[in-house]
Every structure is written in C-alpha cells, then in structure tokens.
Amino acid sequence: MEKRNWTVLIVGGASGIGKSTIAYELARHFGINVLEFDDIQRTVKSVVDKTDATKAMFPAINDVNGHNWMNLGVEWNVQWLKDVSREMSEFLVELVERHVDENIPFIIEGDFILPELVKPMISSKVKALFIQENDINQIISNYQAREGGEKQTFRAEICISYNNWIKKSCEDMRIDMLESRPWDSVLERAVEILRK
Questions:
Q1: How far is CA 31 from the centre of its chain?
Q2: What is the pLDDT of residues 116-131, one digit of tens each?
Q3: Which helix (H) or strand (E) holds 52?
Q4: 170 and 47 in contact (C-beta within 8 Å)?
Q5: DSSP 3-state assignment of 104?
C-alpha cells in the first residue's frame, strides 16, 4: 500500500467511462474504501418519490418521473445530469467534510459530481480527479460489457456530450483529468497525478 497525502479523493466523470473501475483500483492501491455517490442519489430519489414536500425540494431528481428520457434529447439529459448534481451537492459536501473532520480516508466516485462543486473542496486533504473517455464506441462497449443487452448508442451520446462539458469545465478550473485508456497504465497514471 502506498502512503497517501490526502484524506478524500473525489472521482467524477460521465457514465460508462471507467470511473468505478479506476476508483476501485485506486482503493486497492491505497487500502481504503470507495463510496459510489450514484447510490446516494438513488437513495435520495427513493425518499423524494414518497411525498410532495420532498418532490418540491428536489425538482430535478423528481423531474425524470413520468418522462421517457430517451425521447427528450441529448441536451435535456445533460442538463438533467447537471441539475441533479447541483441538487445533490450538499450531500457531497457533507460526506467530504465528515470524512476530512474525522480523518477517515475514502474515495467517492460517481456521475453526479460536477467540477464546479468540487473545486471549492480541493485542499491538502481533498483531491479530485475527473476521468475522460472520448470514444463513443468504447463507451457503448463498456455498457455492453457491464450490463449486456442491446447497444446503448443514445445513452453513449449523452455521455459524450456530458463528458465534453466536464472536460471544458475541468480545463477552465484547472482540475486534474485522466484519460481512461490505455487501461494497462491507468492506475500508474492516476497515482502519478495524485502524488503532486
């Protein structure tokens, strides 16, 4: 196990690009745990669905109810991802602050993490890394390997658009990015970034 110079690592990026794989490889390397933030979002959504009061508190999380996201276009879906991420931001901040305050190291990864939300948290105790994948065919292949079934081209188009927006945001805010491929060197490249 390599010694860390941080307590919390936030790993963000679009769906289907290898975030979880990279996060778990880093967790094994550093001997710490991973929390999948998308699980927190699904938990919040299940609570939101129960009452009108909570639906009003989280309009974006509730917005997908009654809609067929596949009929709403790439732009709507990307905006929905951003809006849900913003609604989830307080949960992210609380998780990070608690782990920093209690000095409990962990990696948090997920789709619903935006560079703009992470930037103010970056410190000597908190690092961030956004994963990039620009090949739509690779994303389609990743989905098939993970979930089986038919090719998910439209979903991959959403991911590419969201990925491009995240990449531009990271560049503007000078947040570290990591290309997911080549896979055989991804751990080494990620660790090198985190040693800075």
A1: 21
A2: 999 999 999 999 999 9
A3: helix 52-57
A4: no
A5: coil
What's the distance, Cα to Cα, between the start and end of the chain in Å?
18
Q: How many CB atoms lie within 10 A of CB 13?
A: 27
SS3 (DSSP) at 16:
coil
pLDDT digits (tens, 9 = 90+) for 145-183: 999 999 999 999 999 999 999 999 999 999 999 999 999
Q: What are phi and psi of 108, to 5 degrees?
A: -115, 130
Question: Which residues, listed in sequence order, are joined to residue 127 by a DSSP beta bridge?
Answer: 9
Q: What is d(CA 13, CA 3) in angstroms, rounded to the nearest whole number?
A: 25
Give the DSSP H or E segment for 127: strand 126-132
Rg of the chain on CA atoms, in Å: 17
Number of DSSP helices (H) and strands (E) in the chain, helices first = 10, 5
Helix (H) or strand (E) holding 177: strand 177-179
Q: What is the DSSP letter of 72?
A: S
Range list of β-strands (E), 18-146:
33-36, 106-110, 126-132
With a pLDDT cut of 90, the percent of the chain lying above it is 80
- What single-letter amino acid sits at 33? N
Query: How far are the Cα atoms of 45, 57, 95 from residue 101, in angstroms, in the given order?
Result: 27, 28, 10
C-alpha to C-alpha distance for 40 and 106, rounded to whole angstroms? 15
